[in-house]
Amino acid sequence: MVTDPIADYLTRIRNAIMANHRIVEVPASNMKKSITKILFDMGYILNYKFEDETAPGSIKIALKYHPVTKTSAIRTVDRVSTPGLRRYVKSTELPRVLNGLGIAILSTSQGLMTDKEARKLKVGGEVICYIS
């Protein structure tokens, strides 16, 4: 039993990057699927596939690496809001990751989105994680 499934998801991605794996498989949930879609749309992962044949389902994520230097597109993954300490921000206090070069993923009343989208829509919410 995992007490924080989002932290487990981010840790699996972080560990796969540190081990230079091409593909990582994680158990699926609706929030993890949304985070995966955001990572793909922002160009941090190469591709993804939702597999729902098994009971809980799984997500296969193809990680993205630079062809010459072999460095990952994702440099750091930081969990911000935890089950023990939730971090909420107003629309005027949205964080900037690496002065706009990274993204913060937020859970808002309008669904999961990046800090840039939340700033554009002027909505606040719970800061899930920072990706850079």
Q: What does this protein structure show overall?
A:
The model has no long low-confidence stretch (mean pLDDT 94). 27% of the residues are buried. It is built from 3 helices and 8 strands. The strands form 2 sheets. Strands 4, 5, 6, 7 and 8 form a 5-stranded antiparallel sheet that branches. It has a 3-stranded antiparallel sheet with strand order 1-3-2, with helices on one face. It is globular, with a radius of gyration of 15 Å. It has helices spanning 5-18, 30-41, 115-121; strands at residues 23-27, 45-51, 58-63, 77-79, 88-89, 103-108, 111-114, 125-131. The two termini are 29 Å apart. It is of the alpha+beta class and 132 residues long.
**How many strands, which pairing sense, and closed or not: the largest β-sheet?**
5 strands, antiparallel
How many helices? The count is: 3
Helix content: 25-40%
Into which percentage range does the β-strand content fall?
Answer: 25-35%
Q: Radius of gyration, rounded? A: 15 Å
Poorly predicted segments: none
Mean model confidence by pLDDT: 94
Q: From N to C, what is the helix and strand string?
A: HEHEEEEEEHE
Shape descriptor reads globular
Number of strands: 8
